[in-house]
Design goal:
- There is one protein chain.
- With about 110 residues, the chain is mainly beta.
- The protein has 1 helix and 7 strands.
- The protein has one domain.
- A hairpin with a 5-residue loop joins strand 1 and strand 2.
- The chain is elongated and about 45 Å long.
- The termini are far apart.
- Bound molecules: zinc ion (ZN) (2 copies).
- One zinc ion binds next to loops.
- The site of one zinc ion has 5 residues, from strand 5.
Amino acid sequence: MKGECTLQTPQHASVDGFSAEKALFLAIACLEDRDKHMHCAQCGTRIKWESAFVSAHRMTEDCVGTGTIVQVDIPYCPQCEEKPYVRGCFHVFERQDGCATGELDFSGARIAI
Ligand SMILES: [Zn+2]
Ligand SMILES: [Zn+2]
């Protein structure tokens, strides 16, 4: 299994970093057929999407039980990869004035935090 071609549920990751990883995974590890279905580039199995519940919280808060829960779909190959974790967390950076950014812009959905 090639580590660089797997996508895992974000753990202590920034939203931007995860978005970039997901885009990279879809570009490198997946092939799209004519019907817009994604397939694994290595074995050809149809890519599955696992819904994960990710807690988006500020850097200063604990990783457990705080923040806003965001549902994130994680693409993976059921043949080559482990099923992604159903829980993870995003770390939201605060602005220089000490306020949180206020909302997350993730996959087109705006999430107030
Ligand atoms: Zn965390
Ligand atoms: Zn595969």
